[in-house]
## 1
Amino acid sequence: MTPTPHTVLVVSPHADDVAAFCGGTIAKFADEGWKVVLVRVTDDCRDSVGLTVEETARRNADELRVAARILGVAEIEELGFETDRLADVPLCDLRERLVYQLRKHRPYAVFGFDPEGLYEGNQDHVRVAQATEEAFWVAAFDLHHPEHVAEGLAPFSVCERWYFARQLAHPNRVEDVSATMPRRVDALCAHRTMLTNLIQGYRLQLQTWGRRVAWLDRAMTGDPRELVATFLQGQAKEVAARNGLPHGTLAEEFRLSRFGGLEELFQGLSEPLPGAPPAPLREELDKVPEAPVRPPEKVARIFPCDIDRKVRLMGHHFLCLGAFDELKDSALFQAGYPDLLARLQAKPDLEVEAVYGYDLFCYQCGYWSEDEGRCTTGWRDKLSKDAAVLERLGIATGQVLTLAEVRRRLAERVGPEGLEHFCGRGEWFCDFKLMGRCQRAYERLQKEAR
């Protein structure tokens, strides 16, 4: 196994939250070579039964170190906020401490409570989730916390956000933790002081009900492992079954977020940074759309041998010729028409013939369906636009002009105002119009024609 150079940071409001909510996955990351940094936000000074505040804080800190070793945590950062009082702490103060940790450790991935999680009554969990969510943004802004920059901590942004919760509203990632579940159980059991307090809370609730559970009574003074294992295993089996994993699998569930609504765009346009370590593969996310596979003979039919001298276009694609110099520098145009750009040279003496029907642009376009053999955005609308454009330009089907003459007519008879009419709205709307490149090109055409 080749160790990964990446860091994962876990933001944990309390000492036991890591083991309780994501311990199997964190142990799995550690086994895969990740450096795991745990940020404990509070001091857990009141999570005990029958101890002083000082002794409680000491024991919980000691037990956290034991649990962290079990899970493979390499480093613990203590923020030291008073437990169960985060609702009284200004959110910006808490956020600043988390921004500092993000800039200091520069993690590839961060685990934490989901601000969209359901049924969360613990305000420490709620506030840490809110502060962490804001810290993701603020850490990237160079005008926030210049004192960090003075320490040598540059702005930074996390790639992956792994959210957990008592109940996730929108889970989208499942991790098989069958192999690491025993360590998750061991780690949670290591938090004996906090477990005792948790068990006591349930015992008091049962007393109010007028009942008792002997199992809980025994766990207060004996070994809690059976109780912990039963709970965690049952929870993990339910997650696995809900997500269709094989019987006997134990799983943990998350909401994994990277780029939100920009995920698909970045998948299609991103390229590796020179010298950057390889990113971990996320099967559900890293699915780059496959370009249509065309046999060489079909490509030859699409691109005629005289394309260096003559190009045949349907009417509305004459408009694209007026903005071709701008469009060819567009990342989206380059991604959509790579074969065309590699072959078509927009020289002034290039001959342009008006044709009725599909053309070179169509066969390269993302709206072209190989299966259906047609444009999927509406053939009738395209024909009406073809006719309107050719009429405006004074060009008949089959007529041949030079590119220089086509551009002169586009400048004189279409211009920015006509471009708005043909491409700006309604049934003739074009995706590229809104990006501004075509307007700039047509304004330049008009200036050159004067």
## 2
Amino acid sequence: MNSKSFLLLTIFFAVTLTAFAQKKFKIGIIGLDTSHSVAFTKFINGEGNNDEFKDFAVVAAYPYGSRTIKSSYERIPQYIEDVKKEGVEITSSIAELLEKVEYVLLETNDGRVHLEQANEVFKSGKRVFIDKPIGATLAQSIAIFELAKKYHIPVFSSSALRFVPQTLKIRNGEFGNVTGADCYSPHKHEPTHPDFGFYGLHGVETLFTVMGTGCVEVNRMSSPDNTDVVVGKWKDGRIGTFRGIQKGRQLYGGTAFTDKEAVPVGTYDGYQNLLVEILKFFKTGIVPVDEKETLEIFTFMEASNESQRKGGKIISMEETYRKAEKEARKLIGKL
């Protein structure tokens, strides 16, 4: 090989390696009606972003999104401008978005449209994170997981509160074995969604992060426009409670009781920890939150609503799930 050929070969490999090193995994966002969409985009596309984000870029977004929840759809025009400043292309449909990306953040604030939107993503074969709530109802949530299995697509959903470091330490047993927990978060009513599913979910997810699965019975006491308290009994006899705060200071947190001590549950500390887990999931396909736990959270919330409708009666988690499972089959049949 002469010197000229060697030089050309060297340049070729240098260019190829540089291009490979600069390749970024392309992410698309569905729903610009929530602050999460803007926050995630700025974390991923922002200058000087963390090592966890450097291999990814948000390249496209489909804005809709809720068309009926005023507090959501009014945000869309501003959020479109916000993500465009980060180099994001706005698409006219989900189908157009799916042609441009490898992974999807389904961020639509309105859980009622998640089933239809998620089904379109599943058919494309792309991994997707579905922001809370995974579905507006327990039945819709079951249907989404069933469709994901049908198309062999890994999917998960979670509140950012799950990945607060202090809360994970409790879950992992660093303070002893958890014997019970009392958790709380704001509870904002949204008439289009069953109670807790739209916002109180944050505190319920915190409770299950600490306690794990195994809740068998639920009952609820409500004080209109003030506070709701839900009590869950686990199959091993442990008791966990969720307090939904409607009036006064909007707080996140709680107390976990272990066989050694009582320790504070971690409070809200932003979206970054959740986003790190999402991007790990995109790379590996390994879900950080099991389907069973997410569905138990939604069963807990639906059972609490049934308890409220029946004046605080204790409601079976198993019966609640079976009823929703039948409805889920009907929803899938309509797609």
